[in-house]
Amino acid sequence: MFGHANDDQQVTAATGMASFWRYCEALANDRRANPVDDFTSDIVNRPDETGRPLTQQEAATILFGLLLAGHETTTNLLSNGLRRLLENRASWDTLCADQTMIPNAVEEILRYDSSVIHWRRRTTTPVTLNGIDIPADANLLLCIGAANRDPEVFDQPDHFDIGRPNARDHLSFGGGAHLCLGAPLARLETRIVLEELTTAVPELRLIPDQTYDFPPIIAFRGPRSLLVNP
Fold first, then answer.
1. How many of the other CB atoms lie within 10 Å of CB of 172?
2. Taking the CB of residue 150, how many other CB atoms lie within 10 A of it?
3. For 17, phi and psi rounded to 5 degrees?
4. pLDDT band at 2 (very low <50, low <70, confident <90, very high)
5. In whole numbers, what is the pLDDT of the chain averaged over residues?
6. The 3-state secondary structure of 107-174, one letter per residue
7. Antiparallel, parallel or unpaired: β 127-129 and 139-143
């Protein structure tokens, strides 16, 4: 849970997280004993490059992360993306006319209005950034949203451009060892949704004069609702 939760809300959230973890453990155990044709069975039964299968804790951790992280973030990505495309009507009309532009449009949505705008990191060694000395073991809050609008990387960074040639240079999925495990799935889901919508309802429009309400969360960002008129 993020935000200013009271004691009762924190207990409820912690209880729910513990219950969800036990569910992931039970799912991993069941698929190891009774494999079926699904992703979880592949995770728990397929050996890695050394020939060793994942431990139950490793498998449960992957399931926990994928099931938890893949809901709110992708929901926000879709709502943020539809909002920006429909606000920029020419962009939406372009995708309706040429769906080959959709993959790059997904990258520009991720850059322009990422569903994760802040995240936490801890330094492993001392580092100097822009003249500021940061010691090892320092807790940092990284502003991904600001990095994605860096004028030294992106030309006219505050302009939404689905044809931007380097849109994929965003940091919305992190990088290196911390690259988001669900990045390929999020890209695929968003691409498919846009392909289906631009085919089925090319006349889709935002309901005018609506007010966007965002949860008071420092990490994730997406409107609570997005009203459209098909």
1. 24
2. 12
3. -65, -40
4. low
5. 92
6. HHHHHHCCCECEEEEECCCCEEECCEEECCCCEEEEEHHHHCCCCCCCCCCCCCCCCCCCHHHCCCCC
7. unpaired
Average pLDDT of span 38-53: 88
- Tokens for 23, please give them: 């569910």
Report whether 112 contacts 168 (CB < 8 A).
Answer: no
- What count of other Cβ atoms lies within 10 Å of the Cβ of residue 74? 19
What CA–CA distances, in Å, run from 148 to 8, 185, 189? Answer: 37, 21, 21
Task: Give the span between the Cα atoms of 76 and 68, in whole angstroms.
Answer: 14
Residue owning tokens 């936490």: 120
Q: How far apart are CA 214 and CA 152, in angstroms?
A: 29
Q: For the segment 70-87, what is each residue's pLDDT rounded down to a tens digit?
A: 788 899 999 999 999 999
Of the candidates 89, 204, 113, 102, the one whose C-alpha atom is nearest the C-alpha of residue 163 is 102
> Encoding tokens for residue 19?
């219950």
Residues 6+ apart with CB under 8 A from 96: 198, 202
Three-state DSSP state, 33: helix
The pairing of strands 228-229 and 139-143 is unpaired
Residues 205-211 have a mean pLDDT of 95
- Token code pair at residue 217: 């969360």
Question: For the chain, which domains are there?
Answer: 7-117+150-229 (1.10.630.10)
